[in-house]
Amino acid sequence: MAGEILYLTELLGLKVYDLRRRPLGRVRDAVLVPRIHPLRVDRYLIAGGGGYSWLYVRHDQVARISLDGIWLSDELLVPYHADEYALRLVRDVLDQQIIDSRGRKVVRVTDITFEIRAEDSRDVLHVMEIDIGMRAVLRRLLQGWVPRRWIRRLQRRVPPNSIRWELCNIVEPDPQRRLRLNISMEPLEQMHPADLADIVEELSPEDREAIIEAIDTEVAAEALSEMDPETQAQIIESLDASKAADILEEMAPDEAADVLGELPEEASEEILEEMESAPKAEVEELLEYDEDTAGGLMNTEFIAVHENANVADAIDALRQRQELVDSINTVFLTDTDDRLRAALPVGRLFLAKPSTPVSDLVREDDEVIQTTTDAPAARVLELFDKYNLLTLPVVDEEHRLAGVITADDIISVLRNR
Amino acid sequence: MLRRLRHHIAIFFAVIGPGFITAMVDNDAGGIFTYSQAGARYGYLPLWTLAPITLLLVVTQEMCARMGAVTGKGLSDLIREEFGLRTTFSIMALLVFTNLANVMANFAGVASSLELFGISRYLTVPVAAAGVWLLVVRGTYDRVEKVFLAASSVYICYVISGFLVKPDWTQAAIYSVRPVLMLEPGYLTMLVGMVGTSVAPWMQFYLQAAVVEKGITAREYIESRLEVIVGCIAMTVIAFFIIVACAGAIHDVAPRDIQDATDAALGLRPFGQYAFLLFAIGLFNASLFAACILPLSTAYTVCEGLGFESGVNKGFREAPVFYWLFTLLIVVGGGVILWPGFPLVKMILLSQVINGALLPLVLIYMILLVNRDRLMKKWKNTRFYNVVGWSSVVVLIGLTVALVILSLRDLMAA
User: Fold this and answer.
1) Residues on chain A bordering chain B, Cβ-to-Cβ distance under 8 angstroms
2) H or E stretch at A381
3) H-run or E-run covering B145
4) What ipTM did this prediction achieve?
5) In this structure, what CATH number is given to the domain that contains residue B136?
6) The whole model's pTM is what?
7) What is d(CA A97, CA A107) in angstroms, rounded to the nearest whole number?
8) Does residue A311 share a domain with residue A281?
């Protein structure tokens, strides 16, 4: 009856009656065709004739649906045939894992709730929710052994746990099928990269790769940076080299170098081939260093200006590298040979007049805490701890500024210990 | 070049853990008792069974590790996805019951092994239970795994105590390769019991879940398989030394039935304080180790199969079912040991019956799954593997049916 709800497990096994109220068979599956209507059950699959032949019942052939059965208004049923645009709820969704994009976790579908709606004076089913948790487990276990109405009464004692269908993301590794079933990646792309990373890590390797391959490259890069190094390497290695290169280009060079460092040599070289020259050069340079040294920890995303420049030049240099502005807190001063001379907190630039030489902003007692590319990681940690640093410049053997280590790099090192 | 070599060695060490730990836990209090009993009563005769047992173990464990690496999903997940909720629920219900009885047996092992040193069970069992709970709830998986791997090395105790007893090595060597079949009910019970304690349903779930948790993929599978095989062999080596120790110390003096595993330890006493000490320490370690793994593995398996949140890195509020189940298994499993009138022996016998009923079921589902194209792709079982797999199932079913009948008989008598 319109307005009531019906569960998928109740729908299964429901008897289907023809115009003369003779039973034709029982429901075996419900089919959604998202390209036609995102929520309405388009067809029912019924098994008739002793269960050997499967038939489709279209939604506009049904007159009434209730807990007692389905009554048809048209008997011209077509036999079952495979349909690539059809999502079969029992086969494809029930008992499978889906992503709850609001709760930001992976859940397993125990049941599906429908609402019975009136459309052109006939009953149709609209998918409402996916049921997880105890209530749905109880309902499914009892189904078939206890009358449907008794189960309804019994389950009231157990609190429900459901997710609105619109918030559910079906995991479908095949991109073609994803298109046919109209599965959008947008809800995943809207998530915080760290949440997305947690979700992806919970999935099987095949599903992981499918998601990373399908979502926006920038989002994929951000999510990937949040995962642990082994998972990163697994995913990157499974993608084809050009896609992997695209994602690595979006990552910070030090992180990209870490991922490549985890891969077998042939794989990482193949990916490097595909990368564009500028990020490639930075990553290659970083790959030279041992991962347990300052060189392995550092990244090359820093801003350095000549020591004779003035404040306006420095701010101009910041403008040139806008993508770094959110995370940067220090500007480095170098001499003509790129040798590190001083470190300047960014804030000081904004308090000074544009024409002031930057060297005037350096105070007498400003000593530049720095380290060399071959310093062991333990020494770097010590410096961060001792001087409460946010950024530590790293210089090469000729005292030229090679890169910087930031506090977030240190947090990853500590976490991975 | 150096980087590549380092890469390969790194992979091997990275995959060490799941297979080894599973095989070691397999020698829990129940296993040690069975092997001790075999040695005490029949001496070196039962040693020949160890080779076929190893083969059975390798075949079943390898399939699980392969499924875990290729699909990235646990066995209970796969059963749920492919066979539905009701099947999963029935298997889980049986698994919870047998594992609970196993937990009881292992807490009993903790209690009795420490009572050899004169420490009361009313002190040791609560402390052990609390320790187990804290280790798993407060530790991260990596750290917990390291503790477990360290615990595995304590099994070397059995090897040393085996040497200290100075058994007859020529006999041991001969009977390791010479099958002896006697149509005596006691001997048959012992044979069936040895297989039954070696291949248990929980292992399949635990191993596959651990492989997935560790993030081992098809690419590192070769190293992982090697690890599983090494683990299985290590397990049989330990079993060999337990049998030999009891054969040398008890059977060679006067063949008899032993009451429990501590009885075996006491039997070693005439051969020196060290042999006795090491045997008792080994028993304590094995019991505690299994008491850690079993509740954890059960909670994981059940929650994953039924779709509840699980994992030690989630909070109590996020994964309530997981934590409740885990806690209950420990509290009940440890609690009954302190309950004087509790029919522990009856429970353990009953659990062997259910174990026996569950194992063929689990194996059949496993072989069906490992042959599905959609899941396993090119990693499906080969024909040779299927022949070995199915015949193992048939043998196991035959043996477990025998074990069930024998246990039922004992249960009626008890």
Assistant:
1) 95-97, 105, 107-110, 132-133, 137, 140-141, 203-208, 230-231, 234, 237, 264-265
2) helix A377-387
3) helix B141-153
4) 0.76
5) 1.20.1740.10
6) 0.79
7) 5
8) no
Can you say how many angstroms the Cα of residue A332 is from the centroid of all Cα atoms in its chain?
Answer: 36
pLDDT 10s digit of each residue in chain A, 417 long? 667 899 999 999 899 998 888 888 899 999 999 999 999 999 999 987 665 688 899 999 999 999 889 999 988 888 888 888 999 999 999 999 899 888 888 889 999 999 999 988 899 999 999 998 889 989 998 888 888 888 888 888 888 888 999 888 888 888 888 888 888 888 888 889 888 998 888 888 888 888 888 888 889 999 998 888 778 888 888 888 888 888 988 888 888 888 888 888 788 888 888 888 777 778 877 777 887 888 888 888 888 899 888 898 888 888 888 877 777 888 898 988 888 888 888 888 888 888 888 888 888 777 788 898 888 888 889 888 888 888 899 988 888 888 899 888 888 788 766
CATH number at A237 reads 1.25.60.10
Whether residue A247 is found in the same domain as residue A344: no
Residue A262 is assigned to a structural domain of this protein: yes
Here the tokens at position A338 are 């790129």
Nearest-by-CA chain A residue for B213: A202
> How many domains does chain A divide into?
3
Residue B192: domain span: 10-413
Q: State how far the Cα of B277 lies from the Cα of B282, in Å rounded to an integer.
A: 8
- CB within 8 Å: A231 and B84: no
Please name which of B384, B343, B346, B381 lies closest in space to residue B363, comparing C-alpha atoms.
B381
- Phi, psi torsion values for A115, nearest 5 degrees: -110, 135
Range of the domain at A196: 185-288
